[in-house]
Amino acid sequence: MKSLTSLLESARISRLKSNLESHGSVLVAFSGGVDSSFLLKAAVDFLGPDKVLAVTASSEAYPNHERKEARELAEKLEVEWRTIQSSETTNPNFRENPTNRCYFCKKELFEDLKELADRKGLNKVVDGTIQDDSEGHRPGTRAAEELGVASPLQQAGLNKEEIREFSKQVGLETWNKPSFACLASRFPYGKEITEEKLDRVGRAEEFLLELGIEQFRVRHHGDIARIEVRRSDFDRLLDSGEKVVSRLKELGYDYVTLDLEGYRTGSMNEPLSRQQVE
Asked: What is residue 89's predicted lDDT score, i.e. its pLDDT?
């Protein structure tokens, strides 16, 4: 794996380096996704592994395979990695699933990360927010701002396409990893989120992953599972339709549907956008 120092001819990578160096030492909120993986790689390359701690939240809202992949990447980067327990479903502000649910989740997480950073003598908590995240409904960013969490990738002006390309150039295996969001995003706002429901959605998505479908969401609408996959994967999903229906009914769904609009991020926010227009 190459060092990001090989990319310093890029003005944005240079800005990223300067930003990280200004902190001296960092705790990286590390989900194992495309963006936080690139941020962790940059922190290790520009600060040195002894000035970096990678921390992954362990909770019902993130499947085990995501934590496993995060740990494996941290090991490859030879940086200290640990998990921090997060129990969102015990927080009524999260459980009731209001439109600003992410604010309460991120606030609790960042408070815990800041406390850990202080104990470890690290100067700053940083997260993988990117330029693309400045658009859309993202209440979690307010929690980061309130608690002084820095977003070096966003501050450097890096977007998803660039991060994937730079990751590919240095040999970071997450360069083409499918996008992932916490399982709470599978529920319509205002519908209670419980540990049992998160487990059901997680098991349903694990099954789709086993079928070889990489980019998907299983949206939870009570007794209905609404599956989103890329339109290019419609045939693959339908070819396994009987297996999918059987498995999801085993998990407790009465009806299993395919969303004809296909996979898209933030589909649960679409009613909010329509309300704003109206």
From this structure: 86
* CATH number of domain containing 192: 3.30.300
Distance (Å, whole) CA 252 – CA 220? 11
Q: Which residues of 92-101 are buried (b: 16+ CB within 10 A; e: fewer)?
A: eebbebeeeb
| The two structure tokens encoding residue 12 | 């944005």
Final residue of a domain: which of 161, 176, 191? Answer: 176
The crossing angle, in degrees rounded to 10, of helices 34-47 and 11-23 is 70
CA pair distance 136, 182, nearest whole angstrom? 17
Among candidates 124, 138, 128, 126, which has minimal Cα distance to 159? 128
- In sequence order, the 6+-apart residues with CB closer than 8 A to the CB of 250 are none
Which residue range forms the structural domain that includes residue 233? 183-277
Whether residue 144 is found in the same domain as residue 216? no
pLDDT digits (tens, 9 = 90+) for 125-162: 999 999 988 766 678 888 999 999 999 999 999 999 99
Record the tokens describing residue 204, joined without a space. Answer: 């349903």
Q: Based on the structure, what is the number of domains in the chain?
A: 2
| Domain edge (last residue) among 156, 176, 196 | 176
31 with 134, same domain: the answer is yes
| Contacts of 12 by beta carbon, 8 Å cutoff, 6+ apart | 156, 157, 158, 162
Count of helices and strands (H, E) across the chain: 12, 7
Low-confidence ranges of the chain (pLDDT < 50): 276-278
Do 30 and 142 lie in one domain? The reply is: yes
The model's pTM = 0.91
